[in-house]
Every structure is written in structure tokens, then in C-alpha cells.
Amino acid sequence: MRPMMLLLLAAGPLGAQATSVPAAAEQIAAAVLPLPAEMRDGATVMGYREPGKLVVLREGKNGMHCLALYVTRPDFHVACYHKGLEPFMARGRELRAQGVGTAQVDTVRFAEIKSGKLKMPAQGSLFSITAKKADYDAKTATVRNANTLMVLYVPGATTESIGITSQPRSDGPWLMFPGTPKAHVMISGKMQ
Fold first, then answer.
1. Is residue 107 part of a domain?
2. How far apart (Å, rounded) are the C-alpha atoms in residues 100 and 70?
3. d(Cα 169, Cα 182) in Å, to the nearest integer?
4. Is 117 among the domain residues?
5. Cα 77 vs. chain centroid, distance in angstroms?
């Protein structure tokens, strides 16, 4: 037997656990947490039925898309954004899956937006929660000691056009990627 196979067999349940994913209901409950309670039931949720393959777990009808990213990340991370951003987000996921480096993903997407191949909405929003995995309780679908982030996409915005600094701040909004198709205002917060 190969050494890796022996290691997996010796690991027993832990080895099996590493290749499994949480039930779809758990992923859905976690993924919608960034949204206000009244919007959660209507969101489209993407998660995993098998490791590494993001799929639609539930179709929604309110225009929000939520991702159960915590399944494959070392931390607890979930995010929801308006459906208008889906082509931009999906293209980023596609490029990363093809092995395009993080720094080059935006270069490719910006060129595709400029050429008209990729559409970027005039505005959009994204809400996310990040915490340590230990701070997420799957039984109650609650998270504590988390960082929240609200992102308002305003393509092409500059510090002059919207009057917000591009210097990162922890006590107020700031503009990231000014002057690009991905320009967005970051607003950070905390959950206790």
C-alpha cells in the first residue's frame, strides 16, 4: 500500500472527515448570516456537495447570492452579494480555478470589462462575516467575535468623485481600488 493510503486508513474517522462537507442545510444557514433576517430565506446559496466544487445549493428569488466559503477555508467566512455582481465574481472564481495568480485575476477581469466581454454593474453591494472556525456554532447557526464587512461597489470611483479617502481605516469608510472597474467603499465592523 502507498504511504498516503496508510496514513488515511490510520487516521480513521478524521481522514474521512477531511473529505466530507457539511450538510446543505448547515451551509445554507451559515452562508446567509451576513444578510438581514428578512432577506435570508430568499437568497440563492452556493456551497459544496463535494470538496472543491462550488454549486448552487438553493435557488433564491430576492437577487442576493450567498457563498458558504467556510467549507474550504481555514477560517469561518461567508459572503453575500447582489446578483448583478455574479458575472464578475464567477469570472474571478473561474480564473483562480484555472491557476491564474491572485494579482493577475483583476488584470484579466479589468481588460475584459474594458473590451465589453465582461459586464460590471453600475453599482453593487457585498456583505461578509469572517471569524475563527471555533467561533461558529453550526447547531445554532450563530457566530461570535466576528469581523463584518460591507462593500459598496462604485466602478470608476475616485477619492475626489465620492469624497472618501483611499487610506485604509478601522473607524470609517475608505475607498479601495480607486479609478478601476472594481472600485469599492469598505466599511468594517465587529460582531460580539
1. yes
2. 22
3. 19
4. yes
5. 7
- Whether 84 is covered by a domain: the verdict is yes
Cα–Cα distance list, 124 to 84, 153, 182 (Å): 7, 5, 10
Residue 69 counted as domain residue: yes
Q: What pTM was estimated for this model as a whole?
A: 0.83
Q: How many domains does the chain have?
A: 1
Is residue 14 classed as helix, strand or coil in its secondary structure? helix
Residue-wise pLDDT for 91-104, tens only, equals: 999 999 999 998 89
Check: CB of residue 94 under 8 Å from CB of residue 83.
Answer: no
Cβ partners under 8 Å of residue 129, min gap 6? 33, 34, 76, 77, 78, 79, 143, 146, 147, 148, 149, 191
Is residue 178 within 8 A of residue 159, CB to CB? The reply is yes
Distance, CA of 61 to CA of 115 (rounded, Å) = 31
Which residues constitute the domain of residue 68? 23-191
Q: What is the CA radius of gyration of the chain?
A: 19
Pinpoint the alpha helices (H) of 129-178: 159-162
Pairing between strand 184-191 and 174-176? antiparallel
> Over the stretch 37-48, which tens digit does the pLDDT of each residue have?
999 999 999 999
Closest CA to 45 of 33, 60, 34: 60
CA atoms of 149 and 127, how far apart (whole Å): 6
